[in-house]
């Protein structure tokens, strides 16, 4: 009798939860308020102080003044960053400062940065904002064919769709009678959402990230260290027969059909489970709408 295989040890699993220990924060749109519903509010991509270790400050200051320096006050203004990297995320983030419409204070919001955003750029969020890269506005006010990202799935949820690096959604059509808008998602699926749902104009920055080859195991190690424990993944044909149904043999081969039935036992359910077809799809669909010449 063989051992309990990897798929059995993992089990059915649960709802996915990403590891967020070293993340900069949860990027999302502003909370929907009166200013955005009826007009617009202005923000700026501004430098944000980040904490620096006291030893880094002391090494850049003369030893005579280092004794008298209050390091806690120096921490606030030493290092600044505006468009930042978020560990475990491919897309960069932007720190946007808004003036609170009701109180004398500044509100800092963390946005997913689209391509073309820069430090010092002014952003406008609201119904009456202009159609420019980085602005946030309802999809119902955008013309058809507009490229958007960080799209709300439900009104006021602050962004749920098209948030990964290089992703975007496309506004296809509007229906003024039902106040609905049809959009095309990055997966190619078309979805009908309320026209009051907000989105950011532009494409998420960091596109083409997966085109660059990893080349060595060290980079893959650090990539998945920031994400989750899913690397390295040993192939079944590289294992012993006691550890996997595909293991064993004088050369690495499965040795049997890789397709298994749906109701097979848990220790044998590996490979192509209840596959309707296998192999590559060759050729393309013929266009039946072409008229005879």
UniProtKB/TrEMBL annotation:
| Xref: Gene3D superfamilies | 2.30.30.30, Nucleic acid-binding proteins, Ribosomal protein L2, domain 3
Determine the domain of life of the protein's source: Eukaryota
Q: Name one GO molecular function term.
A: rRNA binding
> InterPro entries from the xrefs?
NA-bd_OB-fold, Rib_uL2_dom2, Ribosomal_uL2, Ribosomal_uL2_C, Ribosomal_uL2_CS, Ribosomal_uL2_dom3, Ribosomal_uL2_RNA-bd_dom, Translation_prot_SH3-like_sf
One GO CC term on file: cytosolic large ribosomal subunit
Query: Can you give the residue ranges of the Large ribosomal subunit protein uL2 RNA-binding domain?
Result: 11-125
UniProt-listed GO biological process terms? cytoplasmic translation
Instruction: List the keywords (alphabetical).
Output: Ribonucleoprotein, Ribosomal protein, RNA-binding, rRNA-binding
**Annotated spans, Disordered:** 1-23, 243-270
Per its UniProt record, what SMART domains does this chain match? Ribosomal_L2 (SM01383), Ribosomal_L2_C (SM01382)
Domain Large ribosomal subunit protein uL2 C-terminal: residue ranges: 131-266
The Swiss-Prot or TrEMBL record describes its family as follows: Belongs to the universal ribosomal protein uL2 family.
This protein is called: Large ribosomal subunit protein uL2
This protein's species is Timema californicum (California timema)
């Amino acid at each position: 009798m063989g051992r309990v295989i990897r798929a059995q040890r993992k089990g059915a699993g649960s709802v996915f939860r990403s590891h967020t220990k070293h993340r900069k924060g949860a990027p999302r749109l502003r909370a929907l308020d009166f200013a955005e519903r009826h007009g617009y509010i202005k923000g700026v991509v501004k430098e944000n102080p980040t904490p620096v270790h006291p030893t880094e400050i002391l090494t850049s200051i003369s030893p005579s003044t280092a004794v008298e320096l209050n390091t806690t006050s120096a921490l606030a203004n030493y290092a600044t960053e505006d468009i930042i990297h978020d560990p475990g995320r491919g897309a960069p983030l932007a720190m946007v400062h808004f003036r609170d419409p009701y109180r004398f204070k500044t509100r800092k919001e963390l946005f997913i940065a689209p391509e073309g955003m820069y430090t010092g750029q002014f952003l406008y969020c609201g119904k009456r904002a202009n159609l420019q890269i980085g602005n946030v506005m309802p999809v119902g006010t955008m013309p058809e064919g507009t490229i958007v990202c960080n799209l709300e799935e439900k009104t006021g949820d602050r962004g749920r769709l098209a948030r990964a690096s290089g992703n975007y959604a496309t506004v296809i059509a509007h229906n003024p009678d039902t106040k609905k808008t049809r959009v095309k998602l990055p997966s190619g699926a078309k979805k009908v959402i309320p026209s009051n749902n907000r989105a950011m104009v532009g494409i998420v920055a960091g596109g083409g990230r997966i085109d660059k080859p990893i080349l060595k195991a060290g980079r893959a190690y650090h990539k998945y260290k920031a994400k989750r424990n899913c690397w390295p993944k040993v192939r079944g044909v590289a294992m012993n027969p006691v550890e996997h149904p595909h293991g064993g043999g004088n050369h690495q081969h499965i040795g049997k059909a890789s397709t298994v039935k749906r109701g097979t036992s848990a220790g044998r359910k590996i490979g192509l489970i209840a596959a309707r077809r296998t192999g590559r799809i060759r050729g393309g669909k013929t266009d039946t709408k072409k008229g005879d010449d």
